[in-house]
Amino acid sequence: MIPFPIIIAAAAENSTVSDALPHVMGFAVVVVTLAVLWALCVITGAVIKKLMPATPEASPVVASRKTVADDAVAPETLVVIAAAVTAVTGTHRRIVSVQPHNPVWSQAGRQQIQSSHNIR
Q: How many other C-beta atoms are found inside a 10 Å radius of the C-beta of residue 81?
């Protein structure tokens, strides 16, 4: 049994460049169409930038830092986090902030699961 009879049959025929011409032309049409669409997108973006007024940049607002007494994380926890970061990265890093876990998402998930149960 011949595994690829189509390939063998195609190799037996005399094929020329003119046989591939429709495929090459189709490829060229696709490439040209994509280039035209890309150019239209670039031109549209440039026109929109010119027509839209420039918005002034807002100055960044610095958030006030919480004091240590507000939602403080235990020093042991900070030491463990610092040790884990050092173990993973191999260098000492400064911990900027650690915030306690906010259970809102887990509470919403529990509520959805509990509300999906049918009470008989």
A: 14
What DSSP state is assigned to residue 60?
A: P
**pLDDT cut 90: percent of the chain above it:** 28
Write out the H or E segment, with its range, that includes residue 26: helix 17-51
Torsion of CA 70, 74, 75, 81, to 10 degrees: -110
Q: Pick from 78, 107, 106: which is nearest to 94 by CA?
A: 78
Give the pLDDT band of residue 40 (cuts 50, 70, 90): very high
pLDDT, position 2:
60
Chain centroid to CA 82 = 29
Q: CA-CA distances (angstroms) from residue 29 to 22, 38, 96?
A: 10, 14, 56
Whether 70 maps to a domain, the answer reads no
Residue 69 domain-assigned (yes or no): no
Q: What would the two tokens of residue 43 be?
A: 């031109």
What tokens appear for 37 in the block?
């669409």
- Domain limits at 83? 75-116
